[in-house]
């Protein structure tokens, strides 16, 4: 089946990692494609018999980036399965990555020519967010702040195989001490639940380990919050689906993102196991199958 993945987002958010992952999955990858050539690329790929195409388009690409949302809509209206993944990260993470790479922001030169003075990195990032806001608001977002490359690769691999004909329901655990992930559509705070961290035997484990799951399941408050979240999603998920969205990310947060939020996210995924497609992912721990 012909499938096109468009990777876009904020510079420094991990687009090169995403493109390399798709290349490993057999996609023909084109980086830094001008917007005006996207239609031609897709048509040419079909003629050549290619089935999987991945393209990166962002502020590095010449041309009218503002036209990209309309171009995407037109391509989809023609029946082409086009999946857009928008990567972003918070300012602290982006500045750290630029410091480590010692590279200039791709907008720095253009803004200097326009304004006559060299812009700061913060000004470049802020301007880029404004340019890409129309795309971010309507597509699947992954917040890569504090996310190891190996975990981003796993999430990209997971995303590109889902059924685009239904809402992808994602349950995501996170640590409040690292901030609320910006890719969350719904956020639930479970920091009030009993904390396995204070049991020395449970501390090194995670919410996916049986001893932690058994310990948490004995508390009424744990089952009650899972029941309440389940009821909320069951009630409102049909309305999200009517909104013609393709993704719904439910984020569950505790202090460290290791025990309570992980357990609750896993239990919610079980409650909604009949929904397809569904994913569960954890921001503060590397998936077991990758260790």
Automatic annotation (TrEMBL):
Annotated binding of ATP, by residue: 9-16
Record domain RapZ C-terminal: where: 169-284
SUPFAM superfamilies for the chain: P-loop containing nucleoside triphosphate hydrolases
Keyword Transmembrane applies: no
Highest taxon of source: Bacteria
Pfam families attached to this UniProt entry: PapZ_C, RapZ-like_N
Keywords, comma-separated and alphabetical: ATP-binding, GTP-binding, Nucleotide-binding
Transmembrane segments: none
Binding site for GTP: 58-61
Domain RapZ-like N-terminal stretches: 3-159
HAMAP family in UniProt: RapZ_like
PANTHER family: RNASE ADAPTER PROTEIN RAPZ
NCBIfam families for the chain: PRK05416.1
Record protein name field: RNase adapter RapZ
Organism for this UniProt entry: Advenella alkanexedens
Gene that this polypeptide is encoded by: rapZ
């Amino acid at each position: 089946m012909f499938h096109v993945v468009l990777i876009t987002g904020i510079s420094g958010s991990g687009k090169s990692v995403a493109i390399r992952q798709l290349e490993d999955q057999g996609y023909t990858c084109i980086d830094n494609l001008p917007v005006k050539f996207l239609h031609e690329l897709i048509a040419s790929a079909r003629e050549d018999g290619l089935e999987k195409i991945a393209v990166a388009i962002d502020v590095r690409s010449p041309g009218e980036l503002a036209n990209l949302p309309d171009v995407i809509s037109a391509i989809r209206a023609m029946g082409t399965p086009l999946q857009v993944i928008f990567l972003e990260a918070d300012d602290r993470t982006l500045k750290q990555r630029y410091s480590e790479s010692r590279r200039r922001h791709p907008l720095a030169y253009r803004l200097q020519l326009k304004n006559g003075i060299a812009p700061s990195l913060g000004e470049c990032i802020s301007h880029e967010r404004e340019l890409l806001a129309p795309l971010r608001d309507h597509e699947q977002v992954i917040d890569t702040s504090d996310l190891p490359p190996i975990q981003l690769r796993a999430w990209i691999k997971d995303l590109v195989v889902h059924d685009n004909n239904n809402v992808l329901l994602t349950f995501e655990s996170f640590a409040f001490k690292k901030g609320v992930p910006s890719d969350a559509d719904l956020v639930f705070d479970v920091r009030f639940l009993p904390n396995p961290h204070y049991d020395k035997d449970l501390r090194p484990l995670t919410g996916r380990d049986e001893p932690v799951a058994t310990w948490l399941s004995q508390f009424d408050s744990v089952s009650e919050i899972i029941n309440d979240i389940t009821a909320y999603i069951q009630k409102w998920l049909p309305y999200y689906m009517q909104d013609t969205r393709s993704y719904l990310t439910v984020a569950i947060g505790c202090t460290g993102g290791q025990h309570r939020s992980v357990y609750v996210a896993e239990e919610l995924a079980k409650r909604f196991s009949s929904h397809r497609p569904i994913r569960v992912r954890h921001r503060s721990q590397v998936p077991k199958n990758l260790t």
